[in-house]
Amino acid sequence: MDKREIIKIALENTKILKMPKQKLSTFGTTNMNYFLLSRLDDSTRVREGKVISRKPEIISPAEISELFEGFDDYGREYAKELFEYSGSSPRMLNYRFKNIQEKTSESTSGLYDVYKKIKEDIEKGGNGLTAVIKGDESTWQISIMKFIIDMTVKSSGGNISDLEERGMFPDETGIPQNIRNKIDYLFEEARKDRSRIDELGTLLNKHNLFREYEDRFFKLLKE
């Protein structure tokens, strides 16, 4: 049996019995606990562990073109033009995960009896970031990966909305809207309080935007 067939069978036999109620955090690390249940000949094996999800990272328009491989030398340019033609930059996030297996035990009870007991304990404890997964013993790691993918799909829409609300996605020049909003805010503040001009200049230089705002900056100095 080749690897593709093994993966296909493993995915077909994976079932997320209980998904975490919460989504992955948009602005910090998420620690998710899991119980992976697999059936042996006369017992149920229980693997306990955690998956650590790092804070999702925004993929910039420049980085998006790097995702296209297997095209000719103009591939990156084609990708850039394609996104500009579409009139918007895709909202894409990069997720990274780490699996930590903590302990393994066995029970003589049936798999679903074990699941009911674990579910009851989870609900008593009130942990909204715990999953229970059913998978084959020989391919349990694929089942964990399936759970991770399902959590990513479940969370990505909310994560993107959170970032959009805060203006953190970059525009076509690679600058997040919240940075441009802060620049506009500092221009207004500097008109009322000249001591903030240095702060404005520092921000422009930090993001290599001084030349773009140069005329406006020097006009402010003359006022």
Largest sheet: number of strands, sense, barrel closure = 5 strands, mixed
Low-confidence stretches: none
What share of the residues does DSSP label as strand, in percent? 15-25%
Helix content estimate:
40-55%
Structure description:
- The chain has 223 residues and is α+β, with helices and mostly antiparallel strands.
- It has two domains: 3-56 and 95-165, no CATH class; 177-222, no CATH class.
- 46% of the residues lie in helices and 20% in strands.
- It is built from eight helices and seven strands; from the N terminus they run H-E-E-E-E-H-H-E-E-H-E-H-H-H-H.
- The chain has helices at 3-12, 61-64, 75-86, 111-125, 140-165, 177-192, 197-206, 214-222, and strands at 15-18, 30-39, 44-53, 57-58, 93-94, 97-107, 130-134.
- The strands form two sheets. A five-stranded mixed beta sheet has the order 1-7-2-3-6, sandwiched between helices. A two-stranded antiparallel ribbon has the order 4-5.
- Helix 6 (177-192) runs antiparallel to helix 7.
- The longest helix is centred in the C-terminal third of the chain and has 26 residues, at 140-165.
- The radius of gyration is 25 Å and the shape is elongated.
- The model has no long low-confidence stretch (mean pLDDT 88).
